[in-house]
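Run log, item B.
One chain of 281 residues. Sequence copied directly from the ordering sheet:
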Amino acid sequence: MSFLLVSMMKKVITSIRNPLIKKILTLQEKPRERRREEQIIIEGVREISQAVTAGFTLTTLLHCPDIFSEENVAQLISDTRTSCDIIEISRDVFNRLAYRQDSGGMIGCAHYLKKTLSSLDLSQNPLMLVLESVEKPGNLGAILRTADAASLSAVIICDAQTDLYNPNTIRASLGTIFTNQIVVASSTETISWLRENKIVSFATALSGKTGYHEADFSQSAAIIMGSEAEGLSDQWLKNADLLIKIPMLGKVDSLNVSASAAIVIFEAMRQRGFNIFHHPL
């Protein structure tokens, strides 16, 4: 039996009152604690693998042997070349920690991985998405799935109203929070950075005069979207290069922001012949 498996067997937690389990629950529930500790909780075999591939450093890996065997844990560690504390937990403890029933019996703790605008690795003709004041973790997660599907160069989150690493965001993204280049920045910083890098900004707005399908996304472009409740701020409306809109023919005047993002992003990809301009994650 390998040293890895022996070490896992020596660390077993069966009580939700265990200090480590309490700490993980706190990190799950409180954004302030995640920021203070600079740690996030990642649930699911696929999500953990994606996070490690993206450069996140695992500090602790919990596994429930009733769901995910020790041999599979060893294979996962070998595949990802991860070195961290590996702890066995009971099914009761896992059920208390898990947000999903289909996450494969694995939960990891990892250090934050912070990117800045200046650290973004962009192609010569990038296509990116900028989100201002996103409020709902589920919407953010769904948008990140679209960003991954379209292989966007980057996603920039401005003046966020929700924590990027909210467990519901990670869950809704199906792990694509780790496959996208994501930066959190202020709107002021982002507007300046887009101009410096000669990236044309297309802001979606009810006041837009140009249909999204009429805009030219073949150039270096950033699609700007605001919250469902408030839309984009005056700062973006005044500083964007072009205001665009999705024609609405029914009774309502707007769509869910994740649906709007998908519509505009894939129109941009259609114009580009669905060529990939992706970062090297």
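Observations after the first pass:
- DSSP finds eleven helices and twelve strands in the chain.
- Residues 130 and 156 are 5 Å apart (CA to CA).
Flagged for discussion on Thursday.
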